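Reminder to self: tokens first, then the designed residues, so the page reads top to bottom the way the pipeline ran.
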């Protein structure tokens, strides 16, 4: 029987949500600790999640509650505290539901108070993978265990440390693993192709070459609550040409966050932080693919699969163009379509990133910054690649995709006044 662990509370700092009274009280538990003001930037926002650091005067181990104040109306808001990034202070995260117009403000009261536990999104952990779930449905699966290929595919194609399957809210499968003629394609994964390490040519992408691979190396943290769930894991890029199991050339950390605020789709982030594992640099050589890869649904082919980029390119003319976001859309079965939007954060060093797009055949895509030229990863430096995925049922909505990217790139301003 499969054994699993459901992670449904945040680590250390707790899961925070409340539906308590809407009146002021004089007790210390209801004394207002501060007012959080969220101010829209130059765009209009819809269902966005924000956060702000907590000062030392607010004790994060005590239960907190948040109330949004709009005129005479007061509404409880779910909140979650977590220290999951490389910051000294924990943050409080909460949704700004509905519309927030450009330049408009929303106000939230923060106080101590008894939280009411809510069923939020959660992580289902077992000895092979970690499922990101919302409302009992799987959003996507991260594989930390070695995934064994189907019969007829060699053991060199065994891999761990990637995402598959990915689902739409209605349960449509939008990724593929071990596709025919491309056994190394892995749903959502992040290897480099043409590299040089200590004078050796290493291909971490094409597993059949048996030169390199990427493998899971450990879990650093995980957290779940009513606002988001997160997972931080370590990967190793292994040079297999060396004896005794190979030599690690590159250390990688994946930060995965899945958000609960957007109810008409699944919204989740993937951030990859990479750094040479030794005193040896890793040279990434110019090539037309290598980087963040996406293998779309098995059913997606020429006549039922379309691509649109933020600059208006399609799969017929998008290869080697650059984009802020790209939408993949296709029919899965019986007229049911699903769309996957992949967004690039503007802080990525080679933003907007060039793309590898198949103009015919199945659905393969790659954001490949090495198309712009060689790139040397130097020891002691971190190289960060940030992406956001938005998965929903239906066909491409360019206006919605652009808004989602704008919210990713330019979040509202958040200020806590004590």
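Designed residues (418 positions):
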């Amino acid at each position: 029987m499969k054994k699993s662990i459901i992670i449904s509370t945040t680590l250390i700092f707790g899961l925070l949500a409340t539906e308590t009274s809407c009146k002021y009280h004089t007790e210390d538990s209801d004394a207002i600790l501060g007012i959080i003001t969220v101010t829209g930037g130059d765009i209009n926002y819809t269902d966005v999640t924000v956060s702000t650091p907590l000062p030392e005067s607010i004790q994060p181990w005590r239960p907190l509650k948040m109330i949004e104040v709009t005129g005479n109306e007061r509404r409880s808001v779910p909140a979650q505290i977590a220290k999951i990034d490389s910051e000294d202070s924990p943050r409080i995260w909460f949704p700004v539901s509905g519309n927030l117009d450009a330049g408009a403000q929303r106000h939230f009261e923060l106080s101590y108070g008894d939280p009411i536990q809510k069923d939020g999104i959660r992580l289902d952990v077992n000895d092979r993978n970690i499922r990101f779930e919302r409302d009992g449905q799987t959003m996507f699966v991260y594989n930390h265990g070695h995934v064994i290929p189907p019969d007829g595919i060699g053991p060199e194609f065994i891999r761990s440390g990637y995402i598959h399957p990915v689902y739409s809210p209605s349960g449509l499968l939008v990724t593929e693993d071990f596709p025919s003629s491309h056994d190394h394609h892995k749903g959502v994964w992040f290897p480099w192709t043409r590299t040089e390490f200590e004078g050796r040519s290493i291909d971490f992408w094409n597993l059949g070459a048996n030169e390199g691979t990427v493998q899971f190396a450990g879990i650093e943290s995980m957290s779940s609550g009513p606002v988001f769930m997160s997972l931080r894991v370590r990967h190793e890029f292994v040079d297999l040409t060396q004896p005794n199991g190979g030599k690690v050339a590159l250390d990688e950390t994946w930060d995965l966050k899945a958000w609960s605020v957007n109810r008409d789709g699944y919204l989740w982030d993937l951030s990859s932080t990479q750094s040479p594992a030794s005193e040896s640099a890793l040279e990434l050589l110019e090539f037309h693919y290598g980087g963040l890869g996406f293998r779309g649904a098995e059913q997606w082919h020429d006549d039922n699969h379309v691509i649109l980029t933020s600059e208006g390119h399609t799969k017929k003319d998008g290869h080697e163009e650059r984009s802020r976001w790209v939408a993949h859309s296709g029919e899965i079965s019986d007229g049911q379509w699903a769309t996957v939007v992949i967004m690039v954060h503007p802080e990525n060093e080679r933003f907007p990133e060039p793309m590898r797009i198949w103009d015919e055949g199945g659905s393969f895509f790659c954001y490949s910054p090495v198309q712009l030229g060689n790139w040397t990863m130097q020891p002691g430096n971190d190289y960060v690649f940030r992406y956001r995925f938005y998965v929903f049922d239906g066909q491409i909505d360019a206006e919605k995709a652009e808004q989602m990217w704008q919210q990713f790139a330019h979040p509202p301003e958040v200020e806590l006044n004590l």
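The chain has a mean pLDDT of 91.
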